[in-house]
């Protein structure tokens, strides 16, 4: 009897029909475009043409459950279906990797005697390292599918890209694209990031042992992705001494069908006769309207609402360029906005009047895009015989730095500033500017015509214009049709606001429930203001911000988005006046032009419009352009420009040193930076080094005489022991204690892991078990780094509590993820083989409670008594010496903090206080953010460096108890969280301190205090950045 399997995934439907021997008679793969039921019905018709109704049908996939119930057939869980197909056709396989549209899974077959145990891991609710990310980025880069599938992997062309989050990956790709990196290298970098992400997280401490089989659409259609898997797996196997050959990584025929094939094979174990299409037809026809009315919400147009009047009032009117006479000389200022998905340009005259606009979608080459838009402007002005003269040029947007260098722009304006200038030019007394672009959401809050505060989507571009556009295109609509289509929806699904990848998952779920594309599009429009105000701005009370709201940015050309924002604002501020910028899409370019006009002094560095249009350039970014001026060895982009006046090379690099052409130029850069650093110390950088130094302690041991000659003095043993300490987590606060403790006992040899770096992460972070928290996840890489330094002992304690700083706090717990990390990394390094035992290393991970010194004394004695042959008296004294070393370090740091504060007070300058956790002192965890601020002339303080002298505490806290936070923070259980709140209060009381709130992605302990710290800063007028 025939057997059929259908796999209904998040983006595609796959179906196979097998004969009674398991041979494939028919197979079909198709994107379902939100029409799962219809596509399955068409597939069933094909099956019926071949087999009539005489077959068993099994279904699988994320969208298959409801459809299977409607058809009255069995549903098979994906992992079981894939496993069965692999076991049947490739019994030699030990590991499988399947990437789908929104999920990723690994299956490990482990031999346990006569039985092969199966271990399965899947991605969590985030679809970052899957096909959805690849799809979106290929669409954004506008790379034809045939080009993307012809790319070949080359490790020398890899650039840093984060694949943990699909939106982060988009952001990184966008930045590289604007730096001129070719599309081929962007795709190679994306595939590399996806492989590394899955190896780092999805393996959960298991090793992908050969033979490995690669399955799923992305692996099937992108050869470079397969080659990348081979490259990294071979490196992993070489490191572990595992033998492999050219067939160790397989991409089988029909690799995209394995789930469907496996589900069909279940007919060998149970029956699931096909009963016809009637059930699915009924499912498609039955009153979904009742379900929609019950679970959804009203659409964008309320009953009786005059949408035509809304359109007349809020539609952005098409701009009509100004007409010029033959021979007329048009003196103009040029503004360019090199945005994330498009490039915009405008011309204004000397009175600030708009003369012409131009727009083009990004090609991935900013110079090419600028040539195109400037050519359009010139054509508009000169088509009737006028002559255009550019007086000055302003640039803004992602590509502003490259453009300033290459075309000689006079001013490069930060985007928020450019948009504010533009808004104030057209409207007076605006309270709030809401700018929604292709990838950015910017909200600027004004007071008295000046920017009082601004919010940016720092971690995620959920709900941005590009997301709305790409969703519409996926449903077969142009972005210009979005509003008309969305306005037709009577009811819309309720989306959860937040991450774009989670919104993608909502789309799949709503499609399965029967929501139509136009309803989903309207629902996405309705969730946009929630993303703006509740996710990015985190301010539900809009009334406190003002009454005049200006909407601008390219997304505001979409009337569905405008209508959703209008309703959201009006519900909360009924008397609000809502305005739409007359040139919403070109607002940033207009602001840049106005700034160029304001700064014009009769001269311009602009290369000239003809030189720009005749610009010949070549962009190169490969191994030959890699920077060798520091250990990071970043890839740089060289732009070779040829104009009528000669040739010039521009270097786009992540730092000043990388921008230098030769070593003498580097020395000048370094000399200049060192002067700036000397004037503006960075205590985050300084403490990261000082915390691992040795501080004077008293020796607490004495030579022991033994009656028996074979009993050796333990002091000699201690002196020979080499202790390995990873530079991670709470060691950035407690290392002096541990080193002081051990040194007082006679331990002399210490080795530390390197600071976190991109190289360390790329080379050592494989097979991890910690996912959401990067500072914890990277601990595994540090231990592998330490193993190479051959210590005798690796010490990584589970610090459960810290010493409390506040008299009224509820507790002083450490972060539970941090506490549990030693357990996770130990499991990874001992699961398949005990790496510590093989290398003769003792791994010490005692649990420690610093809030109770008696308990701590017991825990430290228990941990070290055998290894160091320790007496209780030695341990007690060593604890005392450890705390003495810690106090010395803390006092040194506070003295440096005091020096900085006295200096900025005297010079009336600003110091920046970093509100972070101890591990944010690691340069690889803070990603050099404070170093960039230091280069701009700001000294950097940390919470631990704030002076505790009475004169400072009195001045800052003004009569309130300096060691009490209970009046502002009741849930004071986490010590590091408590210290962040205290640091905010300290900054709020000091006129020369601004706040930088650093938090790692998805930090659960930081989440509850974001709004509190912001409120403390706002009430005191303290500058606050996140």
Descriptive overview:
The protein has a five-stranded mixed β-sheet, sandwiched between helices. The chain is an alpha/beta fold and 1026 residues long. It is built from 39 helices and 35 strands. The protein folds into seven domains: 2-90 and 266-286, ATPase, nucleotide binding domain (Nucleotidyltransferase, domain 5, 2-Layer Sandwich); 95-251, ATPase, nucleotide binding domain (Nucleotidyltransferase, domain 5), CATH 3.30.420; 329-410, Nucleotidyltransferase, domain 5 (2-Layer Sandwich); 432-590, Nucleotidyltransferase, domain 5; 615-679, no CATH class; 686-889, no CATH class; 894-1025, no CATH class. 42% of the residues lie in helices and 18% in strands. It starts with a strand and ends with a strand. Helix 7 (183-201) packs across helix 9 (223-240) and helix 16 packs across helix 22 (587-598).
Compute the separation of the termini in Å.
63 Å
Q: Structural class, from helix and strand content?
A: alpha/beta
Helix run count: 39
The biggest beta sheet reads: 5 strands, mixed
Shape: globular
Stretches with pLDDT under 50, minimum 5 residues = none
Strand content: 15-25%
SSE diagram, text form:
Layout: E1 2-8, E2 12-18, E3 24-31, H1 36-51, E4 55-60, H2 64-71, E5 74-75, H3 78-89, E6 95-99, E7 104-112, E8 115-122, H4 131-141, H5 145-148, H6 166-178, H7 183-201, E9 212-215, H8 217-221, H9 223-240, E10 249-250, H10 258-265, H11 278-285, H12 288-295, E11 297-298, H13 307-314, E12 329-338, E13 342-348, E14 354-361, H14 366-382, E15 387-397, H15 400-407, E16 411-412, H16 415-426, E17 432-436, E18 441-447, E19 450-456, H17 465-474, H18 482-486, E20 491-492, H19 500-512, H20 517-536, E21 548-552, H21 559-572, E22 577-580, H22 587-598, H23 609-613, E23 616-620, E24 637-643, E25 646-652, H24 663-679, H25 683-690, H26 714-720, E26 722-725, H27 731-744, E27 749-752, H28 758-764, H29 774-777, H30 779-787, E28 793-795, E29 798-801, H31 816-830, H32 835-838, E30 842-844, E31 847-849, H33 853-864, H34 872-907, E32 911-915, H35 923-926, H36 929-935, E33 940-942, H37 950-957, H38 975-988, E34 993-997, H39 1010-1020, E35 1024-1025
Parallel strand pairs: 1-4, 4-5, 6-9, 9-10, 12-15, 15-16, 17-21, 21-22, 26-27, 26-28, 28-30, 29-31, 32-33, 32-34, 34-35
Antiparallel strand pairs: 1-2, 2-3, 6-7, 7-8, 11-20, 12-13, 13-14, 17-18, 18-19, 23-24, 24-25
